[in-house]
Amino acid sequence: MNKYKTVVCVSLFVVVLDQITKVLIRSSFALHESVSVLPFLAITHLRNRGAAFGIMNDLPETIRMPLFVLILVVAFIAILTFVKKAEPRDRILITSLSLILGGAIGNSIDRFRLGYVTDFIDFHWFGDPKYHWPPFNVADAAITIGVILILLQALFLKKLAIQPLRHKGTKKEDEF
C-alpha cells in the first residue's frame, strides 16, 4: 500500500474509533461516573482541559487554546515531513506516525469543539489511589503506541538491520 494511503487509513481509523468511544462515554456516563471493569481498570467519564496528564490545565483559555493550535500545526507539519522522507518499505515508522497523527487529530476535535478532551480509561493498582495512572482515551493510547514503536525501532530494529550477516566459513577479511 502507498505510504500516504497508510497514513490516511490508519489516522482515520484512530480518529473514528476515538470519536465513537468518546460519544458513547459522554452519552452513557454522567461526568465523574465510574464503572469498574477489572480490579485494576475502570471506565470513568472525565474532562481534561489541559494536555497529557493534565499539564497546562491551569493556563487561561486565551493562552491555552492558541498554544494547542500551534502545537497541532507544528506536529502536523513534522509528521508529514517525516512521512515524506520515509522509505515506503519503512512500515513501522509510517504506521507509528499515522497513529500519532490520528491521536492528535482525535483529541484536537474534542478540544476545539468542546473546550476539553474526554478521558475515560482509568488504570489503577487494585483500587489503591497511590498507584493510579492518569486517565486517558483512545487518541492518547494511539499517540503513546506510536511513540513507543518509533523508540523501539530507533533503539533496536535499526541496529539489527545494520549488523553485517556472518556466514559460517567466511574469512575475517571478507567481513565489513
Strand elements, count: 4
User: Quick one: overall form?
Assistant: globular
Strand content: 15-25%
Rg, Cα atoms, Å: 20 Å
Helix fraction bin: 55-70%
Number of domains: 1
Oligomer: single chain
Number of helices: 4
Major sheet, described briefly? 4 strands, antiparallel
Distance between the termini: 34 Å
Spatial arrangement of strands, main beta sheet: 1-2-3-4
Label the structural class: alpha+beta
Q: Output the helix-strand order.
A: HEEHHEEH
| Uncertain spans | 160-165
Provide mean pLDDT, rounded: 87
Describe the structure.
The protein has one domain (3-159). It is 57% helix and 15% strand. It has helices spanning 3-28, 61-85, 91-114, 138-162, and strands spanning 34-38, 41-48, 117-125, 128-132. The chain has a 4-stranded antiparallel beta sheet. The chain is globular and about 45 Å long. Mean pLDDT is 87; it is low at 160-165.
Layout of helices and strands:
Blueprint: H1 3-28, E1 34-38, E2 41-48, H2 61-85, H3 91-114, E3 117-125, E4 128-132, H4 138-162
Antiparallel strand pairs: 1-2, 2-3, 3-4
Summarize the structure.
The chain is of the alpha+beta class and 176 residues long. It is 57% helix and 15% strand.
Task: Give the key terms.
single chain, 176 residues, alpha+beta, four-stranded antiparallel beta sheet, 4 helices, 57% helix, 15% strand
